[in-house]
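Pasting two entries for a bug report.
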Amino acid sequence: MLRAGRSKGEIEMTLADTNTPQRTRTASLLRLARKNKLSAFGLLMFTLIVLASIFAPFISPHDPLDQNILDRLQDRSAEYILGTDTFGRDTFTRILYGLRVSLMIGLTSTFLAMVLGCSLGIIAGYRGGWVDSLIMRVMDMLLAFPTLITGLFIVAVLGANFVNIVLAITVTILPKFARVARAPTIALKEREFVEAARALGYSDIRIMAVHIAPNILGEVVVLASLWAAYAIRIEAYLSFIGLGVAPPTPTLGTMIRDGFNHILDAPFVSIYPGFAVLLVVLSLNLVGDGLRDAIDPKLRD
């Protein structure tokens, strides 16, 4: 608790001295995570995947939509590095462009869920009372349904397109961020630097945005890296059952589904895009594990 009779300058000094180390916590976590070789390998792998998807037109000479029935279901060759699909389209090219869609949907939905979920969690933890009860009961209702079923319901009702898929995945993982943000907020709102901010007359919005949110950013970033992998898997599930981005736009889930009918005579049509999903999820999980080890004092020591 703040001592009575303290001047405004002393309160500002307390606020700065207490809050400044917390603001550098995320940078410290990133430095510690780089010491983890598996985490560094995962970050390198994910960076290469992102760069490959961005520069897909310069990496592959083929168009992802060009069809050549005469070359359908060909295995690997000099012209087609990973073979062709049922319409004679280059599998390698379609994987690169499919990674674009998967990464855009997965990262966008995770970012939106992180921003909205953390905002709701911080508001619930900071305000308490009926605000806390109302927000968390809504989150409990969303968590009561299996995430895949919730995503299927939203996409089936609103239609399968990029925006609705992002909305569906955001809704499924938003409650998880809200719960993660709420718990530390309840503890932080009683800390001295928050009381100092109140004593200086700062608004609740400023206190939550400037003094509480940065202090929970480390934990949120760790979980965001793991749930981004989960979001990419959900997108692949939806595409596999026909509720993804409409063809002919290449997506990894759609490619796996298209090759399912030829799993015996041409298994590579499904195996290669499935392996691409595996690499993306593995890289994000390795990054998340490294950040988790960095944030845990026992593992860090």
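Entry 2 (this is the one that rendered wrong in the viewer):
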Amino acid sequence: MRGLIATLGLFSLAFAGPDAVLVVRDQVLEQGRVVEYVGTQRYPVQNEAELELLVGQLNRPARPARFVFDPHKGWIAVQKTGYRLDSKAVRLAYRAALEVGRREFVLPVTLEPPRPSVHDLWQRGILELVGEGRTGFAGSPPSRIHNIRLSSSKFDGVQIPPGTVFSFNRTLGPVTAAAGYQRAWVIRGNQTVWDVGGGVCQVSTTLFRAAYFAGLPIVERYPHSYQVGYYKPTGLDATVALTRDLRFRNDTPGHLLIQTSVQGNDLIFRLFGSKDREVTWQGPVVLWRTPPLPTRYIYDATLPLGYRRQIDFAAEGAWVRVYRTVRLQTGAVRQDVLESRYKAWGAVYLVGTRP
């Protein structure tokens, strides 16, 4: 019986195909330098049908370099080199190994380099985290969240060359229904209206905070008409419109890379580049405040009787200042004051009157 089992084992080995070996070579940007990692991945293959399945699994497009947080190394940039495997070439390599009895063969693969690669980032001075902005949108209607996700995606991966002034509006492009935006609550002058693009100002506010905390010179910025609950702490918001832009200058030694993400109910903007300064800020300091306006009701005959929904919230009027100090490695020190004046605002309710 033991002899029969041993014979069957030898029979199985004799007809098992050689292992396919993929040589993995990729680079990581960590602690300001590019490190190359080389390794192998082994795949047992019994026949050519399994080989075809393996080719389909291993083919992949290149993924551009992106910073991720490593608990041991901090922020590192990783990439994925693309693999293109030709089924005919792989099959020939498999048969050649099978004919001479080799136990493995190296998969012939064409490498597709990512763009940008971690080496590209390194060459442009994009080495580390230099600034982060974060805001929350808990309680937002689905259309507003959709607009936040859509508009923030326009900035993900954008690079800002040194010495240039970045424009939010120019990068964002048109905010229209044709561009995919939905209707949500938008501040228009002295009222809040239901219009296309509500939520875009949350994106400008979050990017503004990343640039502000990175110590970049703010060229153009406008506060909202009133204090918005989404943007605490007050005094660190930035609204945009057709005639109002958010602009800041990249005065760092290298390029800046914008990365955006949504984590739960938080929108996050991060700027990566070459850190050549330390930034501290104080505030917000409220110089004066005024009470909210009386509650206002908007009656809508298209909504059923008994319908009642709060569409705006009471907010105090205020004059707010935030103080920033930027200490450059050159020894230069810059100080500036960010000033915001907010109107008093009253709660607003939408009330249905249709019988």
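Dev reply: Rendering is fixed now. As a check, the viewer should reflect this: The first strand starts at residue 19 and ends at 30.
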